[in-house]
Hints:
Layout: E1 3-14, E2 20-24, E3 32-34, E4 47-55, E5 60-70, E6 75-82, E7 87-90, E8 101-104, E9 115-123, E10 132-141, H1 148-155, H2 164-171, E11 186-188, E12 194-197, E13 206-213, E14 216-224, H3 235-243, E15 247-249, E16 252-254, H4 259-265, E17 273-283, E18 289-300, E19 303-306, H5 307-314, H6 326-345, E20 356-360, E21 366-371, H7 376-398, E22 405-407, H8 413-425, H9 437-447, H10 452-464, E23 469-471, H11 495-508, H12 520-554, E24 560-569, E25 572-577, E26 583-587, E27 596-599, E28 604-607, E29 613-615, E30 619-628, E31 633-638, H13 647-657, H14 700-712
Parallel strand pairs: 11-18, 12-19
Antiparallel strand pairs: 1-2, 1-4, 2-3, 4-5, 6-7, 6-9, 7-8, 9-10, 13-14, 14-17, 15-16, 17-18, 20-21, 22-23, 24-25, 24-30, 25-26, 27-28, 28-29, 30-31
Amino acid sequence: xxxxxxxxxxxxxxxxxxxxxxxxxxxxxxxxxxxxxxxxxxxxxxxxxxxxxxxxxxxxxxxxxxxxxxxxxxxxxxxxxxxxxxxxxxxxxxxxxxxxxxxxxxxxxxxxxxxxxxxxxxxxxxxxxxxxxxxxxxxxxxxxxxxxxxxxxxxxxxxxxxxxxxxxxxxxxxxxxxxxxxxxxxxxxxxxxxxxxxxxxxxxxxxxxxxxxxxxxxxxxxxxxxxxxxxxxxxxxxxxxxxxxxxxxxxxxxxxxxxxxxxxxxxxxxxxxxxxxxxxxxxxxxxxxxxxxxxxxxxxxxxxxxxxxxxxxxxxxxxxxxxxxxxxxxxxxxxxxxxxxxxxxxxxxxxxxxxxxxxxxxxxxxxxxxxxxxxxxxxxxxxxxxxxxxxxxxxxxxxxxxxxxxxxxxxxxxxxxxxxxxxxxxxxxxxxxxxxxxxxxxxxxxxxxxxxxxxxxxxxxxxxxxxxxxxxxxxxxxxxxxxxxxxxxxxxxxxxxxxxxxxxxxxxxxxxxxxxxxxxxxxxxxxxxxxxxxxxxxxxxxxxxxxxxxxxxxxxxxxxxxxxxxxxxxxxxxxxxxxxxxxxxxxxxxxxxxxxxxxxxxxxxxxxxxxxxxxxxxxxxxxxxxxxxxxxxxxxxxxxxxxxxxxxxxxxxxxxxxxxxxxxxxxxxxxxxxxxxxxxxxxxxxxxxxxxxxxxxxxxxxxxxxxxxxxxxxx
Length: 715
């Protein structure tokens, strides 16, 4: 008989096969398996109370759900299907809900077959009335790429739009700054401030101006004075807090503030007067801080420069229209080089992983997917922003102020061990235990600079890191190797920066000038909230990228490409293409005529009979087998496999694949710590990416397989 051990509170993750996993609030407790019988009426991410039992026969823990403490969401997104004249449904294809959602026709907003809809839940799974809801928004047809972003926004519950009151408040300020009552501000309109941003940017948060004097460099970073307009407890403030940050998608932005502020009155546009909060930092010629101060100012940006144009100036080919600020940009570049060299010498990690750039046509259809080029001009502005953020964090420390900090905790020792083992596979023996870990990692990365392994090592290093977040207590930033760090430079698009401005002003100018600092409790709550909204946006942005990648890959089905293995999982390998910045999954049953063992320490899949290995960084040629834009998933097949799987072996592995019992990023199941894990046990688990971690169910798959048989003669 099972033994009751204790009760726990936490969240649930449903598995497509109906069972689940419980993630306890108590980080000291392990995840608990939830049998299918206890999952009735439970949706993914619901908060529940469970009883934990020990099964004496299996010596395994399992949970029994007692009650739902809170539902994760009261809205869902899905594809509408007509069933009859009275009802429509959303199919629970992935079994995230545990039931199909039923919608009465009068609550459907006249949604048509195969249209994406956002639905407000009336009754949850397990209710006597069943799982029901009403349509609150018809997003668009499932095959129309124009609606991919709208779907992601609704799917991830990102608030869009603003309340009428917030719009009224934003428009009440007019189109020009009002200098009445601003006599205390430092007038810096004659200084050659410039903005350096992307080509499509409209919300210019920051402008910079660098001088040299007999002490070294005098850096001034002027930041849009959002806190002058967005006051606590206003409708503007509430909407901004709810969003937490702006969300950026290809050709679309969900702004934190209405455009009357974000793109106009707060934006540091060229040749117009703007209110700003300035960080003024005196440094010596080695880049060491000697003093810093902060004050309200009036500035007038002397030039709006794109990254490409700034790079031309630094390279000595200054466009004529920027001749009046050429020396100013070059001084800023000189300081940035010194700061960057100093930061790296102190252990700051230099991963510099290129971002994906998705090129869309006017319909939202992807026409190319590339890695965006990183210029020194990007680093130039980043270094000056880092300096301003550090100066503010030090000011908080100097004056013992309650603040909101950007923290990055030390990496998990287990993940560092994986990185150690991977470096060892490449011939680099390195201990990451103790000492200045950042310097050790940087030294290892430099060894492979310019080599194919560098990109893989950078990605693996990134995966071994903790997630940066906001906190009311300063613990430093591991990745940047800073003891003090915060976010001050982007209040137009990040709410924590707005709070930092309020804290500064409250200390410098005080209540007499109408400035009050948030309480320690308010800062702690805001830190947690803004960390969550940031991750919400990141997930939505990645989802759109995966959908657009899959749409692009649809056009490539049946074609072969050179690629490189970028990740190894228990269920297969992920391959990135050289021609396009997309990756896809080669499932384990497609790897060859062998029985593959996952070696977690070495990050390889090894054939039990042949000894053949698949490892990260390995060059392979793949065929695009299928793409599923609905789920954002891409399937590859090996075009030049060393093996040809027999039908018997393939079916065996397919049965094993169906036993995958987890779909949680970064979590591993138990298992023997022997050097490898065979797929013959009752369960196995694996990390699945947000883009394409499960096999695609696209109808194009069978067609692609037929093509692959004729083109590659693999089967």
